[in-house]
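Hi! If you just cloned this repository, the fastest way to understand the data is to look at a raw example. We've pasted two of them here, unedited. The first protein comes first, obviously.
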Amino acid sequence: MTSIYRFKVEDIGGEEIDFSRLKGKKILIVNTASECGLTPQYAQLEELYNEFKNTLVIIGFPANNFGGQEPGTNQEIQSFCTAKFGVSFPLAAKISVLPPNQHPLYEWLTQASENGYKDSTVEWNFQKYLINENGELSHVFAPSVEPFSDELLNAIKEETSTAK
């Protein structure tokens, strides 16, 4: 099984996000959209990020795969997220989370043969993937699971076994 640490992605400002630099922290990956009914989750994600920033990194991946709900440019998306929700957690450059142009990170997240955990399909905007401190996919949460749900909070607080 490979870890997420082999991936590097472009952030929304054109810089590199190197997942290997996040070793020892949990990572919550969320595909986002600015014009979705779930867009208010940005505020909750920001609050979660601030509450757990010593142990958790949240990375938003803007994607226009569902209903054309993320039509903006990277600059427009960043301006919207900052102005409307005060987002300070990292945002990646806009990608596709679905085939046929699915980003390689999302291939890893959705294919058990790649992630060693389970197959999943990105159902809609704001689906969440939790990576443990060892870089392994540990949980997949439906878009309707809110950032402060017991289900997600319990997964963030779980101890990760380093014995494999």
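Ok, and the second one:
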Amino acid sequence: MIAFLLLLSTTLYAIPRTSVLGAILLTGYLGGAVASQVRVASPLFDYTLFPVYVGAILWAGLYLRDSRLRAFIPSRSY
């Protein structure tokens, strides 16, 4: 069931129309991975923060790919 939810979230992320929903679902999935690594006291930089890095890359990729998200979160240019 967990693998199916990951596959569904990844598919939603890959489709441009539903990419924001997929990113939100994947962020929640990765948050669960962080919580389980914290619970078993895994090393911080080796295992625990790896899902955080993947989530940051996921949102950075979506920010560069989706103009609606760039309009929602504007960047300053001086």
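That's it. A detail worth noticing about the second one: The radius of gyration is 14 Å.
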